[in-house]
Each structure stands twice: as C-alpha cells, then as structure tokens.
Fold each of these.
Amino acid sequence: MQVEYITTPEKLQHIEENLKSQPFIYLDTEVAVKDFENIDYFKDQIRLIQIGTDTQIYVIDAYKIDKEKIKRFLKENVENKGIIGHNLKFDLKFLATNYNIYPKVVFDTFIASKILAKGDNSQKHSLSAVATRLTDEELDKSYQTSPWWIENLTKEQIEYAAKDIEVLRSIFKEQVLRLNEDQTALKSSGETFKVFGVKNPVAALEMSFLPCLVKMELSGFPINENKLQIQTQNAKSKFQNLYIEFKKKYGIDPMSPQQVVNFLTKKLSIKLPKTEKGSFSSQDVYLKDYEDKQEVNLLLQIRYEKKNLDKLEELKKYLKEGRIYGEFKQIGASTGRMSSSKPNLQNIPKNLKHLFEAPEGYMFIIADYSQIELRIAAEYTKDQNMIKAFKEGKDLHRLTASIITGKDYENITKEERNLAKAINFGLIYGISPKSLVEYAKNNYGVEITLKEAKIFHENFFNYYSGFKIWHEKTKEYLEKHRFIEQQTLLGRKLIAYRFTDAVNYPIQGSGSDLLKMAVVLFYKSLDNIDAKVVNLVHDEIVVEVKEEDLEKARKILSTAMEKAGKYLLKEVPVSFEISLSKTWNKD
DNA sequence: TACGGTAGCTCG
DNA sequence: GTACGAGCTACCGTAC
C-alpha cells in the first residue's frame, strides 16, 4: 500500500500533479466527532482527508495545513472530479460545511450495496460488511471512533485511514461489474454514467440524487420558531391539565395501555378486540363508538394532545436558528423509498404543518403527484380500462365506485367514492375481502359486510382485468418458486417472498424512482435561481424559493416533474398539483 | 438501570 | 392465508 501522509502545503502542492489526469478519485474523511450519536455537521471538524488513485493514497492532515490552502486544493482537485466513497452523504456534508466544497459527480459504494441487495433487509452495508461480501479483504473498524482530535495522530490511525481507501477500490470495481450485469431495457445517461462506467440506470439515478440530498439536509426545513414555542407551551399545559383531571377522576394512568384496557373493560364494560399478541386493544378506532362516554372522550383528548406535544418537542430538539435539520436515509425502505429521522419530517401531522413557514422574502412551492401509485399500477399491469380512464382525466375513485356498485358514474355519493378509494388503495397491496371490511371502516369510516366486500372485490377484478391477470400470474409464480424478483419502472430489482410484497414493491419502488428523478432534473435546470428542496415526502416535493424567483422555479419544477413522469410512465399520464404558499399548509 | 419488544400514533 | 413502506414515544417485562 503506497501511502503518503501530507502535513505541509508543499507536499499538498506536489500531489496535485499526480491528481491532474485522474477523472475520478477515491475519497474518505475522518472527523473529530466526540459523540457519534450527536454529530454536529456545522461544528465538528474534518481531521483527515484521504484521497486515492489506483496506485496512490494520500492522507491529508487538516490540522497541520492552513484551512484556506486546503480549501483551494479541494476546489481545484476534488470538487469537479468524480468522487468514489462509502456513505458519501457523511463526507460531502462535512466537505460542504468545512470547506464549501460540493462535488456533483459521485459514486457511493454504500448506496450501490443497497441497490445490489435488491431490498433484502438482512444485509448489512457498512464498509467492512460490504468488503467481506464482495472482496477477499477484511477490515478492522475499531479505529473509526478513535480520538481524531489529538495533536499527533498515531501510525495506526494513519494506516487505518488509508486502509479504507484500499478496500474502497476493490469494492467499487466489483460493484460496477455487478451493476452492469444488471442492465434493463431502459437506458440511462449523464455524467455519472460516463465517468464511472456505470450503465445501471438505478445506480445512475441514485448517484445523481445523492448531492441533492446533501443540499437538502444542509438546508434544513424553515419553521416559525415563535409559533413553535407558543404552540408547545399551549400543548403542554393542555395535556397536563387533562392528564391530572383523568387521574384524579378515575385513579389510573391514561398513558398506560394495561391500566386503560383494564379500566375500559372492567369499569365501563366495553368490549375490545384483541391485539396480535392476544391482549385487549384500546386503539382509538375501537373507542370511536364510545365517544359519548365522558371517560372515553377525555382519554381520546389526552391521547391527541399527547401526540401533538411529543411531535412538537421532537421538532424543538432539532431546531437551529429557525430551521429544523433532519436526517434522511436515501434508501430507507426496501422498496427504494427514503426514510426520515431526527426528527422524522415525513410524518408531520397535518395540524402542525402550518408551523413550517418560509422566512422573510421567501415562499414555499409545494408539489405532489396525484394518485401516483394507482397510475403506476395501471402502467405496470397494463390494465386497459384503468389506462383509458387516466388518459381521459377521469376521477378514478369515482369510476371504481361506479364499477363496484353498478351505479352511474355521475350518481356516486361521497360515501361510495370513499369506499372506492379504500378499495383502490387496498387492491394495490393485494388486500383480501376480510381486511377490506376493516380497512374501509378504520380509514374511511365506511361500514360494509363481508358479503358486500366479496362482491366489490369481484367486481373490481372483473372490470380491471389487467390487475386480475397480474395478481394471478404473480401468485402462481410465487407458489412455484418461493420468491420472485420484481422490477420497478426504472429497473430497480426487488425480491419478494410474500404475495402482498410482490405486488406492492414494484409500485412503491417506482414511485420513489419517479420522485428522485424529478428532484435530480429540478436541480439540473436550476442555474442561478435561489431555490432549494427542503423536504421530500414520497410523492411530495417542498421547495423554498426567493419571492422574485417564484415563477421561474415553479416552471422548472413543473417541467422536471412532467419530464420524470414521461420518462418512466409510457402509457399513463402523470398529474400533479403545484401550489405556492407561505407555510406548508397549502393556502 | 439498561435493553428489546409491543402498542399506538403519524405520514405516504 | 397475509393490504404495503417508514419513525418516535411510552410502557412493561426481562436481564444484569
């Protein structure tokens, strides 16, 4: 292993010569983080920057060289090259905050590993786990959390830092081979594709998306701090008062499921259904029928206030100067969807969305794809009736309502439409008539009998026969082979063992392909416009934009969403809503 | 006291 | 025969 430890500006200048001809480099950083649970991307400092070519490894000590000199070096030798690294979101965030460096062409072996796992959750994707799986090399990660802030690093620390790069080389090469084996009908293009020799369109998309995600995390999501504080105080006193009232009146803790169940069944003689584990369940939906009892009413109120309070306090934990800084996993679900945490910005209750507010002089553009999963399902199953309906711009829920009830399209009631909504969504996931009864009641407040559910189920499949065929084929294949390898519209491979997963994964996965592609296209056309994506929620994009750029940004976003839709869906048109608003609540 | 599982809630 | 994907909090039993 050829390792050079770089501690002077002269040495730094010297390696520039060797880097000049490299179209891409391997990169890793070590950061002086004392508490890995609480990383501060804005305060913590990069200690080492490891840069590798196929023959050389340079370990640059950021504590020994003037910051401005390193910055200039990175600007000229790193920012515009292809960057290969493992879990690059971490390194790119620090390069941005420490040195204002934003590479655009990247290949992340962590993301590649997740793509290659095809949705298998049991696989681990740490650098050492990937090394073990793909190469003959083993990696000792025990130095990862060693003290990277001490003045003179040990020889072992430097060697450890360099070793990561060495492993990276073999992993990258093996991954490119494996990704390229997996070519699909759809061809990809773009810089990422060319620089790294990657032909896999899913990899190309994910790698292009990564720098967008870095920007989004660093941007944070603006919130009205004042409103947040006041609302938290209100929620707190409201909850406390109700909590004390309940405890005084009934002598039990309303937050203890056990005590609540005992109280409801013994004292109020309420019949409760069982949970999966066989204990009684006191879920809100089962208590709705007893709302007129004051005990139940108070309990439901307490739960509602408690949820609000929890979410508000969770938000406050991650508040910094009027913005919430959350984290996203780029591939958080096996389907390819993102997930969000610390705090979770993808499950903000509707009644708290108004707190998110663009700062003075800025606005939000809120865009979401309409009935996207249903459209994807139509594309996927090639169901002619559903495709036709979407082409004609029909209200799909209303159409389904008329199909299952046999009534005219024009005479469908609100309740019937709600029921159809339940069926449309349920069918995507392979719902059974039995579950449909529950689902319709719990989510749409529509009560039907099992017999009715069976009829609706049958009517649905008879009309949307493309679905029936697709479901049957999938079921048959699964019975024969035990598992099935599905594919999203972009070519993301997903392995399913259960029927419900087999019909759901490609649809949910295609939705995530679509959203990511729209974001990538948006950033590509943005030029010098002061706009940035501040949140992504599966089928929704929230952009913060300077008021004078509002119209331009709206147009660019609209074009991006349309283009992504046309690229992925050939038979079914996409449709989306775009609204301009000061808060996350659409005005 | 620490940890993991479960229930219950939010979102798509 | 089974609707899908996430994350967070609180409770509660178990292990130390």
Amino acid sequence: MSEEMKHIEETEDVWSNFIHDFIEEDIAPGGRFAGMKVHTRFPPEPNGYLHIGHAKAIYIDFATAEKYNGLCNLRMDDTNPTKEDVEYVKAIQEDIAWLGFSWGDRFYYASDYFGKMYEIAVNLIKKGLAYVCECTAEEMRENRGDLTNPAISPYRDRPIEESLDLFKRMKAGEFSDGAMTLRAKIDLASGNFNMRDPVLYRISHMHHHRTGNEWYIYPMYDYAHPIEDALEGITHSLCSLEFEDHRPLYEWVILHSELQCQPRQIEFARLNMNHMVMSKRKLRLLVENNIVSGWDDPRMPTLSGLRRRGYTPIAIRNFCERIGVSKVNSVVEYSFLEHCLREELNISAQRVMAVLDPVKLIVTNYPKDLVEEFEIENNPNRPEDGTRTITFSRESWIERSDFTEEPVKGYFRFFPGNEVRMKTTYIVKCTGCKKDENGNVIEVYGEYDSATRGGTTPDGRKVRGTIHWVDARNALNAEIRLYDNLFTEADPESGELLDLINEKSLQVLENCKVEASVKELDSKSSFQFMRQGYFCFDSQDSTQEHLVFNRTVSLKDSFKKK
RNA sequence: UGGGCUGUCGCCAAGCGGUAAGGCAACGGACUUUGACUCCGUCACUCGUAGGUUCGAAUCCUGCCAGCCCAGCCA
C-alpha cells in the first residue's frame, strides 16, 4: 500500500460525516463537481478574536479540504465597515497558522470584490430582478408581514431605468445612510423571510478599513457571500446551521449572478460548550471594560487565551476532530477538551518538579555538606527527550499535603514511621515533625537509607509512596498562577456580565518552589507537575518566576479515601 | 401561527432494512520510582413517542411530542 493510500485510509478511519457524504456525491462521476478539486474557505468577519468555537469551523473547512486533497482559502468577510477593524486581521491569521493550517497564497478580502459585486447588481436590476426601495428601516419592518401574512413593498414595480439611475446615485454618495436600499425581487409571500425581497445593498458613508471612502454602498452578507465563494471557485461553502434558511437565497444569487462556479452550501452545528462563553459580544465587553487583560487573557476561551493557558495546537485539533460534525445542537463537555490536552501533553510535555505548597523536609542522617547529583528523565514516555541533572541534599521542599501526623487508611506518603521514595533519589523514613506555637507543621524530619540510591530497594521491600520534591539549596522561588475558565456554569447566556466572572479562575500561589533546572528549559515548553497535572510557562510573560499552572488539567484530589 | 432543521447512554457520536461502533465522564480492578499515565472490566434488550409496512425497522411510511433557527439597511 502506498503512503498516499495509507493516509487516505487513516483519515477515513478518523472521520466520516454527512459533509463528506455530500462531497463524495458531488465529486463522483456525474456529480455536481465531478473531476474538480474540492475547494473550501474559512470566512471570518474581522471584528474580534477567534475562539474555540471558530476552531471547529476552521478545522472543518481546512481538514475537509485536506482530506480530499483540495484547497481552503482564508477570506476576511469585511462587508460591514461599522463593525470591523484591521487589528483583528493579523490576530486571525496568527491563530489559524498556530493551529497549523495553511491558506497558501489564497488570502482574500470580500472587499476585493466590491467592484464585481456592483456590476452584478446592475445586471440584476437590468434583468428586473432587483429594485431600489425607499422604505425606511421602520417601514421595511412594518411592511415585512408576519408568519402568516405576506410582505408589502411599495417600490417593487419601479421601472428598471429608474432603479438603475437611483442605484448609480446611491453608489455616488448622493443619498444619506438609510435613505434607500437595493432589494432583490423574489417572493413577498414566502414562508422564508429571507426570500421576501431581501436587501442586497445598503448605504453607509462610513470609512472602510480597506477601501477607505471609495464606497458609499455596501453589500449585505446574503448577496456578497455567494459571489465571494463563486469568484474564488469554492465548491463547498461550509457554514453554521443558522444559515440553512439562507440557502435558497444563496442559490438564487449564484443562479442570477451568472457566474461559472456554483458552490454548494452545507450547514453544520456550531460548537457549544459548558463552562465557556462563546459570545463575541460578551468577550468584547470583558476586554473593553478591562475585566480581563485582553483578548489573550489566559482565562478567555479565545485561541490566544487558550494558547497562553498551555493548550497546544495538536490538542485543539484533536478535540475538533473527535467532537465530530453533525446538525444536532449539542453541548460538548469541557472535560473533553481537557482530556484532549492531557492526552497530548502526556506524550509531549517535558517534566519538571515543583512544589506548590512547600514545607521543609530535613533528612537528619544525611551529611550536612553533601550534595549529590542525579540524572532524571525529561519525559518518561519519551526517552529520546533525554535527561537533566538535579541535586539532592539534606534539606528539600516537599508538598505540605505529602505529610500527615494521622494518616487515613490508604495514605502512603509521609507519616511518622512510614517510608517514602523521593523520586529518583532515596527512600526516606519519616521520623517526626516540628510545629510552631499554632500547631502548624513547619519542618518534617526523616532518615534516608543510603542503600536505596536511585530509589531502588536492594532487599526487595515495597515502598508504595513516591513523592516529588525540590532541593532547598537551589530551589527557585516562583509565583504560580492557576488559570481556569472565566465563566461559571451558571446560565452564561442570560446572566449579567459581571455575574459570569468566576472569581476562582485566577489563583496566584506565591512561594512555590521549582527545581533549578527550569531556567535552562525552553520557555515555551509545557511541564508536568507531578501528581497534580500540568502547568506551562505563560508565553506572553515567561519570566522564570512566573509559571502558569494549567488548571485545565485535573486538579482533582489525587488521594481518594478508601 | 408560516418556513427551515433536529431528536441514538450523563456528554459528543457511528449507524443508511438484517438484529445498537467508538470517545468523554463515571464506577470496579491490575500495574506503577508521578495515587499520574497505561491496561483490563462494567456502563442503551434499546434508538423522542404512538401506530403502520416487512420474515426482520434506529434505519421506510403516517400521526403526535419536544427542542433549535428565521420577521437586521449584522454576519
């Protein structure tokens, strides 16, 4: 079997969904796109940062093209100057590239096609398929009819020449915003409101981030999108479910535009997740009100926020792949995203030892001036990642929760009389502790067994507990930040903005102790924090004193009472 | 109320007339120099519901029920 065949077989094993069924039907002999290369597009409006919900759409658009050895374009859908800004364009490109998808040299703007769209509109008027309407927004609303009554349009039968003249003058900027619109002449009685003579063009004297003040009229999504797709030779225009009702209009525009390419629109359900808010409007409010530090605040569900929180592109892509594609309005559990990260980090993350809540351990029978070096693997799952050297001496920092005076049944870490393995070094027997006047443990004492170097037991005795630790002589003091989603489960869509903030989404742990080797590791690496989960450096603020604990990965209590 | 769409395990999701894949979560257990990871086991006699067609239905037909989307000069 050739590599290519193998690849195809593998990808087919991974997913199969209704979109593929349509595509396969289309590219099969005799199909709508027989013999053509599958061509998709991802068309964000540059009015905000991309979030995990967009990742699903990006994945579907790009991975579907990849699966059929086709192409996927990246296009800024910038047909509404009142909402868009260049600031977002770069961020969008960066996030998609970060996910590992490439649009090659096919980066476009809808605004590139304004001229062609205008020509097509003129032609529509000439064919009697569009007319200039002078209804105000209110009149339009009043005339729209309702579920059972058809719409009314007083300007519908305006002579072609008159519409042509008016439309040209609209373009020339003769009329003020809202004075008139260009409308398609379709069906005022349609049960589908999108077909009740939809607006094709509106007047706006606003400055456009790319075309400046060249245009006074801007095309509506329903008119612009099919033309953009057709001009780019898109075969499959994949979008979310709320556009199902727009498909007849999409097809109407394609048909009457008389363009060569006739793309097929296919809709899928957008991503919903518990514990996360995907509303761009709300995310923007958080940023504008400085409730978060920016779109890339690690508590945000944006791709840039998730990136700073330690998420990797592979984890997010795997997630998108495994949630599948369907037309069911579903809510994916956040734990599934966490799983995908954990799964990837377990393979790729470089390990390092750290103590979040330190208490000192003194090995009383260990020579005062002795320092021993040990080699420890960077990643037990991947020996090729090599080892690093750590030191061990008389005093170490251990986790406060790794010692107790009164062990519950099943507890097998430090308690007086119990032996514990300090990872990679020795087996240490707990001999007691020292407390302050309030009864808080301030030091733990133990005696090591020099015959157990490397953590082995020559006599074969079993030692169940193995703990992580950091040499007190050279430990780095660190502030570790635990990040979680900004939003709570509580009714994210209806609550007030401030009510949605989860105060526990950022916890700062001071006085954490991290092993000295950290300064030599790449600041973009993820690290596994023993027994607790993973943490990583914040790629925006990667000083050695600032580690970001990846809260997304299991903070569940690892010790279960039995 | 008109139009469109959807209902398979707590959550995703295969299935396309031949007798319910898989993943997440959960729960047992094994293993373990991370109580992690890994592994192994349990977890839908049933596919929104009521009928019908069929030797046979989650899959076809009909009715009903539930949910989502649409009356922006937003996308």
Amino acid sequence: MSVKLTKGDITRQRLLGAAEEIFGRKGYYNATVVEITMRAEVAQGTFYVYFQSKLDIYCDLVRQLTHEVRREIQKRVTGLENRLDIEREGFRAFFDYVHENRNLYRIIREAEFVENELFIDHYRTIAKGYIAGLQKAMAKKQIRALDPETVAYCLMGMGEFMGMRWVLWENKTPPAKGFEAMMDFIYYGIAPAKGD
Amino acid sequence: MSVKLTKGDITRQRLLGAAEEIFGRKGYYNATVVEITMRAEVAQGTFYVYFQSKLDIYCDLVRQLTHEVRREIQKRVTGLENRLDIEREGFRAFFDYVHENRNLYRIIREAEFVENELFIDHYRTIAKGYIAGLQKAMAKKQIRALDPETVAYCLMGMGEFMGMRWVLWENKTPPAKGFEAMMDFIYYGIAPAKGD
Amino acid sequence: MSVKLTKGDITRQRLLGAAEEIFGRKGYYNATVVEITMRAEVAQGTFYVYFQSKLDIYCDLVRQLTHEVRREIQKRVTGLENRLDIEREGFRAFFDYVHENRNLYRIIREAEFVENELFIDHYRTIAKGYIAGLQKAMAKKQIRALDPETVAYCLMGMGEFMGMRWVLWENKTPPAKGFEAMMDFIYYGIAPAKGD
Amino acid sequence: MSVKLTKGDITRQRLLGAAEEIFGRKGYYNATVVEITMRAEVAQGTFYVYFQSKLDIYCDLVRQLTHEVRREIQKRVTGLENRLDIEREGFRAFFDYVHENRNLYRIIREAEFVENELFIDHYRTIAKGYIAGLQKAMAKKQIRALDPETVAYCLMGMGEFMGMRWVLWENKTPPAKGFEAMMDFIYYGIAPAKGD
DNA sequence: CATGAATGAGGCTTCATTCAT
DNA sequence: GATGAATGAAGCCTCATTCAT
C-alpha cells in the first residue's frame, strides 16, 4: 500500500534535501534561500509554495531529523532484551547514523540557537525514553540500581561529547571501546581490563 | 598599584560588556552592532575604533570568556589535594560561574556555529587539563585507575548536560547531588544510597 | 529578425543607461548606487540582481563604451581607401561621437583612476589599430614614411587634447580645421595656408 | 636671507608630503585623512589645524605641484635662445621631473575628476606660455609659421601621451628621439632619417 | 504549480570631521 | 599648537519575501 507521491511532494522533498545539505554545511544563518532553491533546482518563488519562511523549513527539517535519529536508534534496539545490549546498540546506532549524516547532527545542535524549543523537545524526548529504559532494567535487576536521571546525564553527555569530537571534529565513528567499557563499569562495577 | 585605565580602555570595556549582554541574549546572528553601541551608550562609529568587525569583537569576547571560565575553576581548586575534592569543587565552580554569567555560557556554546576554532580550542584545553589531573590522581592511587579519556568524556559530558538543562533551560545551579554521587561511584565504586 | 529582449534585459539596460548618466555627470566616486537605481526607476536591490557591485557596473560600462567608440570610428572609416580620408573621417567620427555622448568620454577618461587596466586596454587597442593603419599607408606610399609610433603619439595626443578642451570644457565639436591641416602638413609637407 | 620655518610650518610640510605620497599612490578618493596623518606622524586632529578639509589639502597640493612643474620647466629653459632648444629642453625637463615625481603627475591628472578648475587652470597656463613662445619664435622666423594653437594641441598632446605611457605605465623616462624628431620635422620639414 | 524578476528593509562598515583636554 | 577619542551621516550590499505571469 505505497503512498503515491505527487509532483509537489517530490519538489518538497528536493527542497528539504537541499536545505539539509546547505544548513548542515553553512549553518542556518549563513545559508540562503536562494542557495537552497538552486541546489534543489527550482525557482526562488517555488520555495514559498511549500514553505512559509526560511525558519519554517528549518523547523520542519529539525523535526524530521530528530524524529529520524530517534527512529533509527529505536529500530536498532527493537527486539533486544538485555539492557546493556540495548544501550550498546543504541549508542552505536546513534554514532553510525550521525556519522552517515553529519550535516543532520550539526543542524540539530544548531537548533539551540535558532529555535530553542525544538532543541529542548528533542533532548527531553530522548532523555525520557532513556530514563524509562533504565528504570525498567533496574526494576528487572538487569543493571545496578542508580539514580536514573544522573546516569542519563552522564551517559547522554558522554555520547554528545564523543559525537562532537569524533563525528564532527574528526569525521569518524567513535570507537565502541570507551562507552561500552564505561557502561560495564557503571552498571556492573566491572573495571576495564588493563590496557583498554 | 592599580593600573591606570585610559578613556579608551573604558570605552572598550563598555563595548565588550554590552556585547556580552546582547550576544548572550539574542545570539550572534540576531545581535546587531547598532544594538551593542546603543547599550554601551556610544555612537556607531565608536565601535569600529575598537574592533574591526562584529566577528572581531565576538572572537575577543569568546577568548576572554573561555579564559575566565577556566581561570575561575582553576582558582577554586587551587590548593586542594584530593582528586575528588578537586573535581567536586571544579564542577561547582563551573556551575556557579556560568549560572552567575548565563550569557557567557550561551556565547561560548554558540561559538561552535560562528567561529568553530575558538570552540574547539576551549574544549581541548579544558579536556587536556582534566585528563592530566585524572592521570596524576590515578598515579597517586587517589582514585581508581580507568581510561582517563573515557572518564573525561563521561564527566565533562555530564557537566555540559547538567549545565544545559539546569543553567540554560531552568536558570538554576544544578544540584550537587548528582555529579558528586556519580564521582564517588566511578572512582570508588560507592553506589549512591537509596533515596538519593 | 529582432532579438527578443526579456524583461530582465530591459532592466539591465535601464541600469546601464542610468549609470552612464550619473557616472558621467558626477564621476565614479561621487555617484551612488541609490542614485543610479532612482534614475533607472527600480529598487535598490534590483541593482544587485544585475551587477555584483558598483565597480562591476562601472567596468561593464567602460568596456561597452570603449567598444562603442572604436566601433563607431570603424564604421565611419570603413570603405575609405586613402589614408588621409581615413584619418580625417576617423577623428571627426571620434569628436562627433564623444560630443554626442560627452558623459561617455568622461567615464572612459576617469577609468584611469578607477580601474586602470580598462583604461590601458582601451588606449593600447586604439593605438595598435592606428599604427597598423599608418604602416599600411606608408607601405603603399599614400603618406610620407615616418616612425609610426611617434606619429601616433602626436596625433592621438592632439585628438585627446582637442577632445578635452572642445568637447569637455566647451561642449563643442572641435573645428576640423586644426587637425586636418596638421595631417596635410605632417604627411605631405603642405604647410597651412596663411590665415588658416 | 633664509626664511625661518616655524614648528607649525614644518608640520604643514610633513602633511603635504604625506598627502602627495598617499594621493599619488591611491588616488584622491581612496586616500584617507587618517592615512595621511599616520604617514606624517601627527594626530588626526592636527590635520584640521592646518587644513580645512581633505579637499582643501588636495587643492593646495595641486596648486603647489602644478606650479612646481611649470617652474621646473621654466628653470631649465631659461637662457636658451633657440626655439628648438627651448622645446627640447622643456619636454625633457617635463619628463624628467614627472619621472622623478610620478605621484605628482598622477595627482595632477586626477584633478580633472576632483576639482576640475585646477586642472583647467594648469593646462591653460601651460598652453598660454607655450603658444606665446611659439609666436615669438615664429615672429623671429626661428621656426616655420604655423597656427600656434594647432601646434600646441599636437605637441602638448604628444607630451601627455608619452608621459602617460612611458612614465605612468612603464615607469621610465620617454626616449628623446620621438619628440625631437617630430619637432625638427614640424618646424623645419626635416623628415627623420631612415632607421630612426 | 511554477517561475524569476523585483522589492526594500536593514545590516555592516567607512571616514571626514569635531571637540574636550 | 597638538592630541586622539568620539561622532554620525551616508554608502554599499544582502537576502527573505512578494507578485504578476
């Protein structure tokens, strides 16, 4: 039951794709509507057939991208039972995805300075799910019981820092070693082996 | 033996102060030079007597602010011997300072999208000092031996996340509880007491 | 088979026309883009749809004008066989044209102080053609053999001086008398009649 | 009976000297008062102690420079009796002087687009003297009788053209050959020797 | 739907000039 | 006389947005 894409939908997608590339590369404020339309190979006026303003397409994009990130992580952890497996796979999914779509990550981060609400929503949503998962795992005694919010700060922050440094600064996927060892350690008290 | 401030130095300071307020509140791209000069109560042209461009004053400001943050933390941990004391006091200093100067923190964060180099420099410098401190403490067996870089990602990330949520979103100083418990836990394996 | 002018081409022409008038009357540096757009009866922004900068339109204009001057002279001397006829008609064409388009002449002269390359190009091109013509005529013994470059300096300089004084200072076409007599004299040794 | 230069006169001279360098190198409109004062090593305000405006110093300078050129030529031809000697030496003096002071020449030429009156005055004065000299020489039958004004256009124009090309474009003194041969030719009908 | 020419508000920056010391 | 900080008018240019076709 595939959805029929009208010509208009396609143009809209072209614009969103172009916007992702331009916003990601130059940042919201240094991107111009003209540039986006040029990349999408449509006329300037066409932009305003599909979006009310530059901010409008940006918000659309951020909503879509944050949704994708979360869905992507969700997809990868679906079916996994053990908390540690979920976390490991979740972080890996996150890093893989943003590495594949580096522009996306920059756009999401910049939302803080463009439309802060979107940014807050995204992180709150992520945190909520993350904390819920932790609580479930603690209830089942899969992992040690700790204050879930504190753990969330700690591990989500670690994820961001690694994403920032490895993905954005060095254009690489962060090594799994670090965060996996840290989780073993936090949840089970297993200190990393010497030489790790 | 106070340093004599010339008339010019004062004007320069006024401009920097005004810039901090405006950049912090509206963001780099939504701030205007006119607004800064109005707040500083000088004429538009005066701005260009002291700074070459809007970007110039921004970079000056970021350099000055990042320096201040680091110095402030340094000042507070000077004299402390025990690693945990250092960390606790360091984080508290950080939170206190950015809470007192919320604009400062937003300006530093936005540097990622204005002049990325400055942003990277700042975090690298912080991380370097942090890691060195960890290594020293581990060598002295003050804390458990772990991969310092991973610990840095974890705890600095936690600091950022708490700074973001508590300071920027809620305009409060983050509760000491969370990060202090986490450190006890990471460094000594002391799980937080129930009810924490 | 007239070429279809798009709406855009017309606006562009309006701007160039307005620019010619303003640059010619006030000089490059005292002309403003606003003034040009007002005279062209378009909005300020429209200017930058067609030209990248004030200097850009100026260079376009100089290139176009110098080309026109040369073409105009060329047109008038085409078909003439005798060197003296060519020269006479050439100078007359030059004077007539710049008198009809005094602004044009001022613009070309000012190029020396705006974008010197254009100015040099123009004079080199003129001189090259002029010298080539002299050489051909000398080879055919139509005129006395003299160093063509020296003759070129002499007569082109005379043309400029007369253009400057009669056209620019007094807004008249220079009298043919002077330069025709001088050519007779130089090429054939015919001294002007008494009373000339 | 040397004139005592006060401190003020010296400052004034420094400013004029600096202005000559800057105006000559960058042109009137691209020169700034600040730059002139910096080069003169005085404060910005000092400029307005000696000159009423940027245009004021420019006019002063042009008047002084045109005067110098004429005096320099005058000096070199004083005492010469024969017209041809006078002309040869006069042109050589002109070329030598502007070559030594290229900036000066550019400043004078640019006057056409800054304060046209000064420019006109200069050329009229030169032409008047030149024509008077020609008439005297013709009366004494030192040179062939021709319309002096036409000769003036011809030879002054030649001088300008050579000055422009050799001095300004190529930074050399024009070769004497050309204009001396042309004068022999015009005044005595002596065609240049083959190979000249 | 699509176009692309046109708009104009508003930003950054320059610089001749003034003025209190 | 000399200073140099301060001024503010005015210029160039950008770009999100509109609109007639």
Amino acid sequence: MGAVNALEIIDKNGKVIIRGLRDFEPKHIFECGQCFRWNLEDDGSYTGVAYDRVLNVRKDGDTVIFDNVNIEDFNNIWVGYFDLNNDYGKIKHDLAGRDEVIKDAINFGHGIRILRQEPWEILISFIISANNAIPRIKKSVERLSKNFGQYLGRYRGKDFYNFPNAEEISRLSEEQIESCSVGFRAKYILGAARKVIDENIFLEQLRELNSEDCYNTLIEFKGIGPKVANCILVFAMGKIEACPVDIWIKRVMEHFYFHEDTPNKKIEQFARQKFGQYTGYAQQYLFYYARELKIGK
DNA sequence: CCCCAGGCAGTTA
DNA sequence: TAACTGCCTGGG
C-alpha cells in the first residue's frame, strides 16, 4: 500500500478527489518543462493526454480533483504517472539541507513532481526540444498527434488524440513529419521510428537497465545527445539520478556556484556530487526556479 | 530587420 | 576531445 492510499479518496461522477495531497501543484508540475501535452484551461485547471487517456487536473485548497477518470484508471495509471506514492516531503527536506540555493528553489517550486511519462513519446518530444522553444515543441507534438495519432474522444468540446507510436511514425514520409513544424528534426524523428521498428527495440524494457546502459542505448539515436538522453532518463525511465544540463541549468549553476563559463560535463559532475541520488529532482527545482525568474540571463 | 530558443551532428585541428 | 558552425521555425 502506498502513501496515497492513506488519504481520503472520493470516486464519483467521473472524478477522483483527494484531500490532503501534499507536494502537488498543477502549475509547478505542468510548467516545469518536463511535459508538452498539458494545457491550462480558463478555470485554472490543466487538461492533458497520457497513456491513451484524457485527464483534467485541478487543485482547490488542499484538495486535488482529477476529472474524466474512473478509480481503476486512477490506480493503475495516474498514481504511477504522478508519482503519488513517492514522499516528496522527504526528498525536499533532504535536498534543502544541502545549501541555500536549492532550498530557495524548492520553496519556489514546492509542488513539483517528476512525471513518469511514456518512453516513446518522451524520446520524440525531446528530440524535438533541441534548439527549440517550449510553446513550439508543444505545437509540434500536438500536430503529430492530431495528424497521425489515434482519436481518443472529446473533452470540454475539444478532440483529443494519442501520440502516434513508432510503427505509425515509421510509415510516414519525412515531408509528412516536416508538416508538423519540426524543421530539421524530421529526419531524426523518422530515423528513430525506423530504428525502433527495425531493431525491435522495446523502450519500456530499457527501464530495467541500469542508468549507464540505458543512456548508452539512447545516445545511439541520431538527434539524441547528452542533454536529451538525460531528459529521457529522468522523465520516462525513472533514472532520477541523471542530470540533464540545458541552458537554464547552465545559467543557474554558473550564476550561483561557478561564476564563470563552465563546461556542461563539469556542471553535471558537480550536481551529481552535490545532490547524489536526488540529482534529477534538484535539477527540476533549479530549472523551474531559473526559468521562471530568468536567473542568469 | 535581427535575435534567440531546454542541442545536435558534422567537420576541423 | 575540444572548438566551431549551421540548422527549421516563429515570436519578440
């Protein structure tokens, strides 16, 4: 039995409602750069797609309301997706004791959780993320889904589609993929799909590998370098000790710790030494902190 | 118009 | 293996 089972859960009318759910802020979770398919609604809730489901999430005081879901899917899919059985209070307490910088970052993004997302969608999403901006990454992922994914249903008057699987993408032309505004990354996306199909790669099984073997497998894909591979490790493979060093992590680390231009490898080493098994969490708090406050820019 | 955005591959030295 | 360079796209 996980921690979430100790809480009061109400299941009614296609909603699952949890009172007293700690360390959970939709804005922090969905806008900390880890996911691209969650969008803010007019009422402050977020609607997104994962694991062939459409879900809406809202927080009201200490209550979190999951809409468009039944209790079976909640237990089988979303508890894992939102990492609800993980004690973020403990993680934050441990990390915050290490120095004032990470302590401030944690206070700022106190409701962040690392989502356990689908490996294939995350692999392609982060190939698209290279030298790109979040709103445009979201637009490309959305277009790929709408044009080539399977129809899932309607919610609040909008149609939703899943992310096309590797086989579906492998059958597309480079031009079809380019039509989703992915630019020069189209050949990497098609190449990745063909590699997965031709080499019979089961990305879910990479979760069973250790971090290093998992990384070495991912970096064989054209379009996946060190940063993207580490993002896939943290956001889909459960390898939370990994440390993606992007431009914001580089900025915030140089601003607070190095005070000079520093190679990404050195930043990664420093972070892993400082934050250990919690490096991926620390990275996410620091990223959100830096990007929202434009630290180091 | 220029600049840059959660990097990468390819080329050089 | 480190240092460079060009890259689709589109919003500021």
